[in-house]
Amino acid sequence: MLDIDSSATTVNRHQRTRRRAFTAIAVRSSSAVSAGLLLFASFPPRSLWFLAPLGIGVLVLVIRGRSIRAAFFYGYLSGLAFFLPLLPWVGVYVGAPPWLALAAIQAIAVALFCAAAAAVSGLRLEALWIAAIWTATEGLRARIPFGGFPWGKLAFAQADGPLLSLAAFVGAPGVSFAVALIGAALASAVCQVRPPTPRFAVGSAATVVIVPALAFALTPADDAGAARATVAVVQGNVPRLGLDFNSQRRAVLDNHIERTMQLGEDITAGSVPVPDLVIWPENASDIDPLRNADATAGIDAAARSVGVPILVGAVLGNDDGTSTNTSIVWDPVLGPGERHDKRKLVPFGEYLPMRSVMTALSSYASQAGNFVPGSGDGVVDLAGIPTAVATCYEVAFDDLVTESVRAGAQLITVPTNNATFGRTDMTYQQLAMSRLRAVEHNRTVLVAATSGVSAVIDPQGKVGDRSGLFTAETLVADVALETRSTWATRLGALPEYAAVVLAVVGCALAWRRRSSAGWLRTPTPQYAAL
Fold it and tell me: Across the beta sheet with 385-389, what order do the strands follow?
């Protein structure tokens, strides 16, 4: 009888242990998902920037003390909760498979972050190592696969926050690092079982309070001595939402010609000042204006009507059957001149990797273009002003814009075509990137979109004027032509490389702390590793 009772007690104890373990797993899983949702909510158009460090803090708490495998699992859950709601615009007109596949791939970076962060948790200066690891994984995402996908960098959620000013000193990677550092410091503060030591208290205060305060204090001032220019941004609009706007290519071109001709009439009437230059969006002329006489004549007429050069976004056909996404400087007298061929192409949009696999997943995949990338530094001479051209997707990549500003660009333009993404969040997420680039390089940024949102952004990242979505509008503004280089422009990728070095050092210290086998699988009671 005693043996039976003892056996029953053991079974009951085992069942209670299992229930507690699975309850703990459920709580951690839901917390990981909550962390991902907090990160998502920090991005435009919600723009709750202060939720980003909280999301990192919750995620660090979830994986603290977990095994590497468990941390990877929770990180992947959090990554899915972050990227699935952030990226649905990818599949708005082409179906869910590309969106789901992209989110699933991007979530791997968050899983890797959590695995490494779990390894370094408990080390001295753990918040430093964790912030460096997050920044390093963002750098990884920006490079692989298929040339990288930087969307979702923490820096891009800070356009309305005090940390934006850091972009002028340490670029987008430095802003992401600061957000992650604050989040990790908050998590460390919560995990203090004993009353915090004075050293710890001072360190936490410095991280959570002084870092954003310092960033705010370092906000670059306006340069009253900078040269000025009057610019015009033309948004001609498209006939309809969705992918089939391409079937109305002539209408899109005519819309931009008509809007520019109206600008010419307004200039003649004296209702608007004479601009120094005009910016058209990406794909304003999907009819090759170098091969089609009607398109050439229409753009010539538009340029003559305003009497200044137009940066024309066009698709050019090549003799080998490929296409080039190009921005052409169109002079009112000389016609087409310098051009920028888009250097960073959108995989699965402008070209199709793994074509056979992708076409099997989605019937829309076969509609992907056959574009080829350009080269150069992305700078064109527009009315005597060295102008950087970051065509749509290119604005997300740190190195491309940095290279253009280092080459002497005084103005940054972002010609973009967002009509294929309808009324989704994509437009607002991209606008936030442009605002960060303005501060990062101390340059005015002009966003010209076919269907919106077009905007004029000053070097402090403030939007001075903007258009609506799916409207025909022209923005005319007086802007600064800055020549001063920021520390971020000079340093380039060095802050990101420094974060990678710190991440490697932190992981090496964690490896040293444990044996090789123990680092991968710390002996724990059953279920406790999860």
Answer: 379-382, 385-389, 411-416, 444-449, 455-457, 463-466
